[in-house]
Amino acid sequence: MTTLLHGSDTLTRDALTVLQPGFVGTTAPDWLLRRIGEGLSSVGLFGRNIVSPEQLTALTAQLRAERDDVLVAIDEEGGDVTRLEVKQGSSFPGNYALGSVDDVELTRAVARELGRRLARCGVDLNWAPSADVNSNAENPVIGVRSFGPDPDLVARHTVAYVDGLQGVGVAACTKHFPGHGDTNVDSHDALPRIDVDLATLHARELVPFRAAVAAGTKAVMSAHILLSALDPHHPATLSPQILTGLLRQELGFEGLIVTDGMEMQAVAATYGIERGSVLAIAAGADAICVGGGLCDEDTVLQLRDALVNAVRTGELPEERLADAAARVRALASWTQAHRARGAESVSGAAVQEGTAPGADIGLVAARRALKVTRGEHPHTPMTTAPYVASFTPVANFAVGDETPWGIAAELERLLPGTETGSYAYSSVDAVLDAAGERRVVAVVRDAHRHPWMTEALDALIKARPDTVVVEMGLNEAEPRGALHIATHGAARVCGRAAAEAVVGTGA
Fold first, then answer.
1. CA 29 remoteness from chain centre
2. CA neighbor of 339 nearest in space, from 163, 160, 159, 125
3. pTM (two decimals)
């Protein structure tokens, strides 16, 4: 048994402090408020917790009535991954669209406006941006969440995004360290691995993270991936070589290290969430993210007790847990100070909702991100209601399947009477039967990763050469159709921009 330097109350509070749990509901449950009173310093919000800005503001006020410095975190990347607008689709394009424009001032402005909306609702830690270099076009989980495949481009836009968020008092959490881009496995499902040499990692994966650290990102999120050149035995989240040796010592990062969700199978299937959390803190992580799937009081108590017991048995040095808790409190103090200084300006901005400078910056960015290619068949702008055929892949866990995507709703607004259908592995005959005499707009997402989708498009265009194709994922496949529109993401504003292009009213 180790001799504790502090009392058990301090140890328990430190264990609670390093947890970032989720919960169910649009108001805080009693158990969560009670644990905040006992030392819990962070809460993670997900789409299930949010129905409107007003409700979210009331929820964060409820949390801070228990403890004014509680960190309220969210996974709000914009683009395909949105929690603020989970039922509507995001007002901001995602990283791939911003990277395709490659205007760092635009990226900074988008991140700033997104940060303003988060701050107005009382959210002060954003698990974003993704600094992954998407060097593998077959990547099933990153894709359009990355600024692109070029390390330098990703680096400069990551810096701009961090600046934008933190300039309005919302802490950025740059992810997924040391880089999730060159994987073909989703870490929600299994453990991905990257088997490249150190020179490649330093020239590619690590470039954006070095830049983010130099720019002052307040937090970094670890990835549940195995990089054999750095640590052949442990995923990054559980690796002292990666979190302490590389991120802390070599890159010089002094902020908060947050784990990716500990219930993800890349860690949980092998280690379990309790042992995984102990190993993560021991490796150098400061905060345990949990709650995307496991979101109840029992999970919080299990992780708290696992950390306390690990200190008592000597498996986890008490000083390491205390240091982790101190880093959480330091970030909480930074955000609290920014809230106090920015309260007047934020409330002033709220009065200008919808008219404040930059409020439409998301749509501006989405329009700029469009790439329109004309095919051999003549195209004329649509003036009558078309039929929209959405070829729908299975959504990955990070994006979720509850956020709408596509262009049908926006086309309906511009061309009333627009009809739509969703297809997966269906015969093109079904699309043609449903379309009748209407022109067809085929909407796809990552067509290059889904052979069935490519085959369907080819058959559809052969039968109807005037078909318009809208690609809302990675723009890797050859352009098809009389008009091919690449949106570089599936946010709601991307759909609106594409619909404008279909009818010829694009700004």
1. 25
2. 125
3. 0.93
Do 125 and 72 touch, CB atoms closer than 8 A? yes
What is the DSSP code string of 398-439? Answer: TT-SSS--SSHHHHHHHSTT-EEEEESS--HHHHHHHHTTS-
- Is the pLDDT at 401 greater than 90? The verdict is no
Active site residue 188: yes
Handedness of CA 486, 489, 490, 495 (dihedral sign): negative
In DSSP notation, 123-157 reads --EE---B------TT-SSSGGGSS-S-HHHHHHH
CB 283 within 8 A of CB 231: no
* Phi and psi angles of residue 412, each rounded to the nearest 5 degrees, phi first: -60, -35
Are 94 and 491 spatial neighbours (Cβ–Cβ below 8 Å)? yes
Q: How far apart are CA 407 and CA 293, in angstroms?
A: 30
Residue linked to tokens 């495949």 = 149
Bridge partners of 172?
Answer: 126
Residue tagged active-site, from 163, 260, 286, 446: 260
CA 387 to each of CA 1, 418, 424, 433, 456: distance values in angstroms, whole numbers, following the listed order: 70, 6, 16, 11, 16
Contact 319, 282 (CB under 8 A): no
Check 176, 180, 188, 379 and give the catalytic one.
188
345: number of Cβ within 10 Å: 13
Report pLDDT digits (tens) over 220-245.
999 999 999 999 999 999 999 999 99
Element at 282 (helix H, strand E): helix 265-283
Cross-strand pairs, 177: 222
Q: CA of 319: how far to CAs of 8, 312, 313, 316, 328, in Å?
A: 14, 12, 14, 9, 14
* Phi, psi values for residue 142, rounded to 5°: -95, -75
Question: How are beta strands 193-194 and 42-45 bridged, if at all?
Answer: unpaired
Tokens of 186: 């989703």
Task: Tell me how far apart the alpha carbons of residues 78 and 70 are, in angstroms, rounded to a whole number.
Answer: 23
CB 442 within 8 A of CB 389: yes
pLDDT one-digit tens code per residue, 145-175: 999 999 999 999 999 999 999 999 999 999 9
